[in-house]
Amino acid sequence: MDKDEAPAPPDDAPAGSDAPPDGDAPAGAAPRPGEGPVEAFVSGAAYAALGLLGGIAGLLGSFAQDWSPAGVPVVAAVLVALVFAMVRLSGWGMGGRLGATIPAIVWGVVVFALSLQRPEGDLVVSANLSGYLYIIGGMAAAVLGVMRVPAAGPPGQWLLGRAARNRP
C-alpha cells in the first residue's frame, strides 16, 4: 500500500466511511460539530433563556388572565393559545422536545405558585372561570405543544442509550 492511500474501512463499516465500527472518534481527533464546550455553553444559555421566557409568560399571564369583558374569559383563552404557541415554537426552535418542555414546566410552576393563597388571603389567580381556564387550559396547551414537537432522536433512543446512536 502506498503512503498516499488511505487504509480500507473495516468490513462492517458503511461504505465511504473511515470511522471505526463502534462510532467512537479515534484518540486525539477533533470533536464532532456541536460537541465542543462553546456549543454546550450556547445550548445551556438558550435553555436558560427559554426557562426565563416561560417564567415571564406565567407571571404576566397570571396577572392578566382575569381581564374579561362582560364576564367572558376571552383574555384567558387568548393566553392559553399563547402558551401553546410559546411551547410549540420553543421546541421547534431548539429542535427537540426538551426545548418545549423547559418553558412549559417553568410556566406551570410560576402559575401554580401564583394560584396559592397567601396567609393574608391574597392570591393572583383566583378560583373563578377565567382562573380555571387559564390553569387547566394552559397545562393542556403546554402538554399538547410538547407532544406536537418531533423527537430529536430516533424512536427508542432514550431506552437503548448509546446503542441507538450508532445505527445508521
Automatic annotation (TrEMBL):
Pfam families to which the protein is assigned, alphabetical: DUF6113
Source species, domain of life: Bacteria
Transmembrane segments: 40-64, 70-91, 98-117, 129-147
Record keyword Transmembrane helix present: yes
Keywords assigned: Membrane, Transmembrane, Transmembrane helix
Region of interest (Disordered), residue spans: 1-35
Regions of compositional bias (Low complexity) in chain numbering: 13-35
Name the UniProt record assigns to this protein: Integral membrane protein
Organism of origin: Actinomadura graeca
